[in-house]
Amino acid sequence: MKMFFACAMLTAAVSAPSYAALSAGDSAPNFTTQASLGGKEFTFSLADSLKKGPVVLYFYPAAFTEGCTIEAHEFAEAVDQYRSLGATVVGVSHDKIETLNKFSVSECGSKFPVAADIDQSIMKSYDAILAVEPEYANRTSYVIAPNGKIIYSFTDLAPDKHVENTLAAVRNWKADNQVK
Q: How much is the average pLDDT of 104-108?
């Protein structure tokens, strides 16, 4: 019975939505890392991307796993909506760049970059480590304004609300920042 209770508690803790440690108004930690777009490697710089508009930064546990594949497909389907709002999307995981080269083509549809965080320095700076398996990122999404401030954060291992929520946050930011 104790084992059942422990498993039930772990399942509830892992499946329940939680809140990212970095909140709206916090400064987003800057980073530069290897990334892949359409199977081609390049250096992704958050600072450079923010010069173009808001950035949707999402962390995911591992390429080619079920939830991460679902999430990548959803971001790929919505990337034109993000672009129309001036936003850039980038995914980050602990995967090696060789894995991300494949993932960026097959699961992201060559529509947005995925970045490698082998040493977990980016994940740690955004407090996006999965507590129950710290070698992986937690499924956490951030929207970062061009001024480097976080305007939205969301953590939930279920992949189904990340695109919907971040797209709404970008739309709200855009509406609030249009010249009147």
A: 97
- What contacts 22, CB < 8 A, 6 or more positions away? 28, 126, 127, 142, 150, 153
Query: Is 6 domain-assigned?
Result: no
Q: Is the pLDDT of residue 14 over 70?
A: no
Residue 12 lies in a domain: no
DSSP 157: S
Helix (H) or strand (E) holding 115: strand 114-116
Looking at residue 30, the DSSP 8-state letter turns out to be: P
Single pTM value for the model:
0.88
CA distances from residue 59 to 5, 7, 40, 175 in whole angstroms, order as listed? 30, 25, 20, 26
**DSSP element (H, E) containing 88:** strand 88-93
pLDDT class of 21 with cuts at 50, 70, 90? confident
Q: Does 8 reside within a domain?
A: no
Nearest CA-CA partner of 33 in 153, 126, 114, 142: 114
**Distance separating alpha carbons of residues 111 and 134, to the nearest angstrom:** 29
At 6 the pLDDT is 31
**Which CATH number characterizes residue 92's domain?**
3.40.30.10
Residue 71 lies in a domain: yes
Whether 113 shows a pLDDT value over 70: the answer reads yes
